[in-house]
Amino acid sequence: MSKPSLPKELQGLLRQNSTLAPLAKAARGRKAAAPKGPAAPPQDCLPPALRDRVTLVEEENRWLAMVETSATAQLLRFHLPRLERSLAPGKSIKILVTGRRAAPAATADKLRANERPPLDAGSAAHIRQAADCVDDDELAKALRRLAGRAER
To answer: Which pTM value belongs to this model?
Structure first.
C-alpha cells in the first residue's frame, strides 16, 4: 500500500480526521481572506549581491532580466525558479546579456587626451632626418607627419 501524497488524497485524510478538519477549513479561510497589498518588486527575492547586477524590465507578457556579463546570467539562472515564483502567473523571464557598461565620461576624456603620447623636439628632429634618408615617398610623408606632432 502506498502512502497518500497527492493533494486530493491529503485533503481526504484531513476531512476524515475530526481534529484536523476544522483546522484545515480555518487555514483555507485565512488564505482566501488575506489582504492583497502592493506586490513587492520581483528583485526583492534575489540575493543583494545579485539584485544590484540585474535590471528587470516588464514587457506585455514577459520580463526581461538584463545583466552585464554571462557569469551574472549563469548565477541568475540558479535563482530563476525563485524569481519566476515571485512574478504574476503566466509571465516568463528572458535573460539578456547586455555587455559591460560604457566607461564614465571623465575616463573617456582622459583616454582621448592620452591617445597621442607627447613627442619631444629631439625625437621629432631624428624622425625628420630619417624621412630625408628614406627612398619611399609615402613612408617619408608619414614620418614627416609624425614629426609634425612634436610638442611646440
So the answer is: 0.42
